[in-house]
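Now produce a polypeptide, keeping tokens residue-aligned:
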Amino acid sequence: MKDIILETTHLTKEFKGFVAVNDVSLSVQRGQIHALIGPNGAGKTTCFNLLTKFLPPTRGKIQFNGVDITGDRPAQIARRGIIRSFQISAVFPHLTVLENVRIGLQRQTGISFHFWKSDTHLNQLNDRAQALLEQVDLGEFANEITGRLPYGRKRALEIATTLAMEPELMLLDEPTQGMGHEDVDRVTQLIKRVSVGRTILMVEHNMNVVSSIADTITVLARGAVLAEGNYAHVSKDPLVMEAYMGTTEGELAGAHA
């Protein structure tokens, strides 16, 4: 039996008659990188919003570690260990890089977001924050003001702050969106590195990224599951190629989802 950490059954979301997510049954295996891909409008981000309870499902069930979490609120989801990063970098631009990670660490200490705590009290988190920065190749930027970081480094910082909250399941929403080639390569390798001992579910548009690090790929089209498997399997699926506007297998590798 596979060790399934997250499972959805017949997950559906309708908006005034429009079906954005249509009967999606998804199984994410513990310890894997699982990618959710599909053409624009396929329902990928809506699916993420359902999993993190930013949107309530119209129908269906969500289970995490075998527990039904369909009725949970977003804060409950986070406390269970499902931590999400967003398409747009979610960091505090006027704080230093280290201070951003320290805020993530506060969640584990029982002093979450107590900005009025003294520096002495918060400085005890500095060593752990620095270690996380080293893990994502940001150690030398610890005292930089975050707003001055290049875009790719901000996304690496967001991954560090996500790790600070000790996720059991990381949800990464378009982690390489808007990046140049060099930043894409750096963040791709970073995701691969931090996935050791963790489970990652990611929405990603860059098929080169998906093909290089995803263990399992679920393809959505018009809100429904079109295909699932490893990259070699889904890239040859005729329905997948048709969904990407009739591309050939070679062209699919460079397509945007």
In short: The two ends are 31 Å apart (CA to CA).
